[in-house]
Amino acid sequence: MLPGSYFSVILFFRDNDFARWYVNFERPYRRTEIGIDTLDLLLDLVIDPDLSFRWKDEDEYRQGRRLGIITDAEHHRVKQARDQVIALFEQRTGPFAEHWQSWRRSAEWPTPTLPTNVMDVPVTTE
To answer: How, if at all, do strands 40-47 and 35-37 pair?
Structure first.
């Protein structure tokens, strides 16, 4: 998730091998007292290791547009984000840079745990 971006990129792994990139088009995240807030804008892009790709849920996106869930302004931002994602992918930069495919979390890092009550989460303001 990049600040101000209308997309995020997730790398999927299967048996510790890189499986695919998954691009989720969404409203830019914003931090809240209890975490991160965003809204999925219904459009996704799947990119396989062989560099083939396919758009997902274009029909849902069109329906979201028809229903007014995705505003004209957001539609314009999604179009810009699509172009940005394709450019990053073609240049193999940002989240598509090759080094991310081999990145793994350190075995020394503890497994995170979620609090049992959201009210137990300390609130910080930056």
So the answer is: unpaired
- Residue 45 has φ and ψ, to the nearest 5°, of -135, 130
| Number of other CB atoms surrounding residue 27 within 10 Å | 16
Q: Is domain 7-100 annotated with CATH 2.40.380.10?
A: yes
pTM reported for the whole predicted model: 0.80
Indicate the domain borders of the chain: 7-100
What 8-state DSSP symbol labels residue 71? -
Q: What does the radius of gyration of the chain's CA atoms come to, in whole angstroms? A: 17
- Percentage of the chain exceeding pLDDT 70: 93
Q: Torsions phi, psi of 102, nearest 5? A: -105, 0
For β-strands 7-14 and 53-56, DSSP reports them as unpaired
The residue written with tokens 């609090």 in the block is 115
